[in-house]
Design a protein that fits this description.
heterodimer; A: about 280 residues; D-Maltodextrin-Binding Protein, domain 2; about 40% helix; B: about 290 residues
C-alpha cells in the first residue's frame, strides 16, 4: 500500500474512535426540559464495589426527583476517604468499611453518629469461567504454582481477605500453614476490588477473593467457590451525609431511598445482603 | 575606510539596541516566572511536609528500600533494552528517503500520546496468558504478566520513543558526505557507524537515553495493569507512592523526594556534561 494511504487509514481510524463515544453520548443526553428550576447535582462518593447497584439506585432516584442529577465517583474506599480528607466537594459518602468512614469522621467531614449501615457483603472466591487451575475446594488455593490476585491490604476487601485466611488457618481441615501457602501464590495486590475482578475475568490469574456482589455483577465470565459462614467475613457498608455538603436535604433523601424497601431490594438483586427486612 | 564604517555602524546598532533589549529582558523574565514557580513550588512543598528524621526512618523501611532498588534495576534495564532495539529504528528514521518513513515515525510517536493505561491493556492483550501470544508463550513455559520482565516491557513501551526521537535527530544531523568519504576510504558499514556516526551523535544518544531512563523511572499506569503490584517483585517507586498516599503518607513523601532529587541530579549532570561538549565543539568549529 502507498504510505500516504496507510497514514490516511490510521487517521480515519483515530478520528472514528475519537468521535464514536461522543456520538453515543449525544444520543443518551436528554434534551433539557424548558422552564425547569435550576437542576441540582448531588455528588455521591461510593466504594468501587457499589458501582452497579448505585448506578441503578441513582437512575431511579433521578426519575423520582425531577431536576435532580446524581454525580457518582466510584473508587476504593481508602481513595475516597483520602479525597474527602483533602477537601473534595461531596454530599454523600458510602464506604465499604467502617474504618474509612471513621477516617472521614476524623477529618471532620462527616458528623459522628450520622453513619448508618445500609448493606452487608460476603466474601467469595472467584476464578475464570473455564477454571484453568481446576479449583474445586478452598484447600486448592494452597496448591503450589497457583496464581492468585488479591486486593491490597489498604483496600477493605484486601483486609477482609486476610481475616478470612486467618480464620481458615484455625480450621484443622485446611491446616495451620494454609495462610502462608495461599499468600505465597499471590502475584499481585490490586488497588481496588474491581481490578481483581477484571484480571480474573480476563483469565490472567487463576483465582482471587472479592465480594459476592462483585461476583454477581460479572457472573457471566466467572466461576465461584463459596466460603462457609464460619470462615466468611461479613462486611458492613456505612453511608453518611458529608457535613459541609451543599445539598443536605437531597443527601438525606438519597440515604432514605437507599434504606427504603425498594432500595434494599435493588441492593439485594446486586448480590448484597440487605439490612432492613 | 569600509571596515571603519562597519565598526561605527556596529557600535551604533549596539547602543540603539541595548536599551529596549534590557527592558525586554526583564519583561521576558517576569513572564517566565509563573510557569517556573508553578513547577518549583509544589515540588518544594514536598520537602516541607516531612522532617529529616521521618525521611530517614521511612527510607529504612523494607517496602521503601525494595521499591527504590526495583525501580533502579528495571529502569536501567529498560534503558539498555531501548539502546539495543531503539538505535536501529532511529538509524532508519534518520534516512529521510526511507519509504515508510512517516508511518514508522507515527508508530514511534504513538506511545508518547497514548495514556499509559492503554499500553497496559494492550500489553495484556498481546502477552497476557489469554493474549495473542499467551498460549504460545505458555507452551514454552513462559509467563510474562506479573513479573519483573513485565515491568521492563511496560516501561520500554512507554519510554523508548524518547530515546528514538533524540537519536534520530542526532543521526540525521551528520553530514552525508562524511559517511560517503569514510566508505570511499574503504570503511565498511560497521566501521562507518562506529568511527563516524557514533562519535558525531553520541551526545544526542546520551541525552535520549537519559530521557528514556527518567520516563521509565516514573512509569505507573502500564505497570500496574500489566505487571501488577507486588512488593519486591513488581512494586516500583510510583506504585509505592500511590499506595503510600492512601496508607502511609510518609512513604509517599519520602519516595517522592527521592525521585525528585534523583531525577534533578541526573538531568543536571547530563545537561552540564552536554553543555561542555557543545562548547568545545563550537570552539573547534570556530578555529
Amino acid at each position: 500500500m502507498h504510505p500516504k494511504l496507510v497514514s490516511l487509514f490510521f487517521v480515519i481510524i483515530l478520528l472514528g474512535s475519537a468521535c464514536a463515544p461522543q456520538a453515543g453520548e449525544n444520543h443518551l443526553t436528554p434534551v433539557a426540559p424548558t422552564a425547569r428550576p435550576q437542576p441540582r447535582t448531588l455528588t455521591v462518593l461510593a466504594a468501587a464495589s457499589l458501582t452497579d447497584s448505585f448506578k441503578e439506585l441513582g437512575q431511579r432516584f433521578e426519575s423520582q426527583n425531577p431536576g435532580v442529577r446524581l454525580s457518582f465517583s466510584f473508587a476504593g474506599s481508602q481513595q475516597l476517604a483520602q479525597q474527602i480528607d483533602q477537601g473534595a466537594p461531596a454530599d454523600v459518602f458510602a464506604s465499604a468499611s467502617k474504618k474509612y468512614m471513621d477516617a472521614a469522621i476524623a477529618s471532620m467531614r462527616v458528623a459522628d453518629g450520622t453513619p448508618t449501615t445500609f448493606a452487608q457483603n460476603r466474601l467469595v472466591v472467584i476464578f475464570p469461567k473455564d477454571n484453568p487451575a481446576g479449583l474445586s475446594t478452598l484447600q486448592d488455593l494452597a496448591k503450589p504454582g497457583l496464581k492468585l490476585d488479591f486486593a491490597d491490604i489498604s483496600v477493605p476487601v484486601g483486609q477482609y481477605t486476610l481475616d478470612f485466611l486467618d480464620k481458615a488457618a484455625q480450621e484443622a481441615a485446611l491446616g495451620a500453614d494454609f495462610k502462608e501457602k495461599v499468600l505465597s501464590n499471590v502475584v499481585s495486590y490490586e488497588m481496588d476490588v474491581k481490578a481483581v475482578v477484571s484480571k480474573i475475568s480476563l483469565g490472567e490469574v487463576d483465582a482471587g477473593v472479592v465480594y459476592f456482589s462483585d461476583y454477581h455483577t460479572a457472573a457471566g465470565t466467572l466461576g465461584r467457590l463459596d466460603i462457609p459462614d464460619a470462615l466468611n467475613v461479613i462486611s458492613s457498608y456505612p453511608i453518611a451525609p458529608i457535613a459541609d455538603g451543599k445539598n443536605a436535604d437531597l443527601a438525606e433523601d438519597f440515604i432514605g431511598w437507599v434504606l427504603s424497601p425498594e432500595g434494599q431490594a435493588i441492593l439485594s438483586r446486586h448480590g448484597f445482603v440487605p439490612v432492613t427486612p | 575606510m569600509a571596515s571603519r564604517d562597519a565598526e561605527l555602524i556596529e557600535i551604533l546598532e549596539n547602543s540603539l539596541a541595548d536599551r529596549p533589549k534590557q527592558g525586554l529582558d526583564v519583561l521576558w523574565k517576569l513572564l517566565a516566572l509563573p510557569l517556573l514557580l508553578f513547577i518549583v513550588i509544589p515540588l518544594f512543598a514536598l520537602f516541607l511536609r516531612t522532617s529529616f528524621r521521618d525521611f530517614f526512618a521511612t527510607l529504612n523501611q523494607a517496602q521503601v528500600a525494595t521499591a527504590i532498588g526495583l525501580s533502579l534495576i528495571t529502569s536501567l534495564a529498560t534503558m539498555v533494552v531501548t539502546l539495543l532495539v531503539g538505535t536501529p529504528v532511529a538509524y532508519l528514521l534518520a534516512q529521510r528517503r526511507y519509504r515508510f518513513h512517516r508511518i514508522v515515525d507515527t508508530i514511534i510517536d504513538l506511545p508518547t500520546v497514548l495514556p499509559p493505561s492503554v499500553a497496559g491493556v494492550a500489553l495484556l492483550m498481546a502477552f497476557g496468558r489469554r493474549g495473542l501470544f499467551g498460549p504460545f508463550l505458555s507452551s514454552l513455559g513462559i509467563n510474562i504478566p506479573f513479573t519483573l520482565g513485565a515491568v521492563i516491557m511496560a516501561q520500554t513501551f512507554v519510554a523508548a520513543p524518547f530515546y528514538v526521537k533524540a537519536a534520530t535527530i542526532g543521526f540525521a544531523g551528520i553530514d552525508l558526505e562524511l559517511k560517503q568519504a569514510a566508505s570511499l576510504d574503504g570503511a565498511n558499514r560497521w566501521q562507518t557507524f562506529r568511527y563516524v556516526t557514533l562519535p558525531l551523535s553520541w551526545t544526542a544518544l546520551l541525552s535520549g537515553s537519559v530521557m528514556t531512563w527518567a520516563r521509565a523511572l516514573g512509569e505507573f499506569g502500564a505497570t500496574i495493569l500489566f505487571a501488577g503490584n507486588f512488593q519486591g517483585k513488581t512494586q516500583t517507586m510510583p506504585l509505592a507512592i500511590y499506595l503510600g498516599f492512601e496508607t502511609d503518607i510518609n512513604v509517599a513523601l519520602t519516595l517522592s523526594i527521592v525521585l525528585v532529587c534523583f531525577s534533578f541530579l541526573i538531568l543536571m549532570i547530563v545537561k552540564g556534561f552536554l553543555h561542555r561538549k557543545l562548547e568545545s565543539d563550537l570552539e573547534l568549529a570556530s578555529k
